[in-house]
């Protein structure tokens, strides 16, 4: 009989607070003041400023924002329940409370909680305008609304009618203090991702030098899947409260190619200034606007997945664009790019040690810190295969969760010949970003020269006209190879990637560009099947 399923940890969130409110009651007064105080406190809140009529079908983006929020503040005002839209929001918020563990804080604004619980705020005609739905569907929806109102009324929250909060400002201050204490101490990262991060985070902390008032830019560099983004996200969550404004800009390279420079700059300013309706500006004026708006503000910025010098120049070309004490973290797999921009303080993300790797793998494979009794030897086999790469440990551990030892053994045997596609797809991005000549050198190193004497390899490749000195520099700067004690090394999974790329060139050995197994070489030469 299969063991009972263990629920995975809740997904990470993007916003710290989602504000649900009835615009006609509270926009331009209470909610505006609440939103402003949350912003001042450093709480990243989502507020829907849509001009759509409340009562029409709720926008899918709002449902997504609710799922992406750590907590929801539901401002229950006299007319809150007169809007289908508000009630649909409330149902979704309570669903996320149940399924994702999201926090819900009701604010009873000029209403009695007992009226909410008894659905007295719900108008008799609610749902009648839903002409496209059947009577049964309407009844079901109204029933859900009533249940949601009853449930939210029982959650501990804030009541504006209390005499101790006669002044609205004091009432809002108490709400903000309460919610900030709750969401600021709640990490958005999966706890498993923090395994082995302690000493690494301390190193990054030392490089950031947060106790100084200078503007400082720090790079995080390393192989794909090694945990660069995870480390930066933890640092961002840990320190963003110390800054007047903050922004974690993800997928910079993709956004730059898909949407252009203005979109990147617009997202940066929107998130740091917390203004959704920023005016557009002429192409080329974004840099001046960033300097103009942020030069007097202490900001924490993270730019993730930067692969072109122009991208970081558009976002943070000069340190004087930002106020005293600001910190900018640039994440890239290209060390030369960081140095070319003047980022001389660079943290090199490294693979996990064996004990750390086993703990991380166990977190995903068993939902505990060590393997189960009958899985120790198999676990060490997978950890050895992953060679300390966090991405591989997470992917493999998650895949193997709740599977039998027989299934584990079959998967381990399979990996020797057929690499995991999810892992390979991430690592292949490193290969795809290389120029053609550098790709050839990478494949040669993967097929023949991993762990070989660097001088001998250089001589061989030079004789082939591959300009190895330049290629080695590119591969080292992109964290694909290292040189240690006079020998060239690449991660075992990168070597497997290179050989898999060659295998996929053709089904027949003789039609492939490289052969490294003696039996394959003998067979091709003996049979005369070389292309």
From TrEMBL:
SMART domains per the UniProt record, alphabetical: TIR (SM00255)
SUPFAM superfamilies, alphabetized: P-loop containing nucleoside triphosphate hydrolases (SSF52540), Toll/Interleukin receptor TIR domain (SSF52200), Winged helix' DNA-binding domain (SSF46785)
Enzyme Commission numbers on file: 3.2.2.6
Gene Ontology MF: a single term: ADP binding
Reactions the enzyme catalyzes: NAD(+) + H2O = ADP-D-ribose + nicotinamide + H(+)
Assigned keywords, A-Z: Hydrolase, Leucine-rich repeat, NAD, Plant defense, Repeat
Any GO BP: defense response
Protein name in the entry: ADP-ribosyl cyclase/cyclic ADP-ribose hydrolase
Organism field: Linum tenue
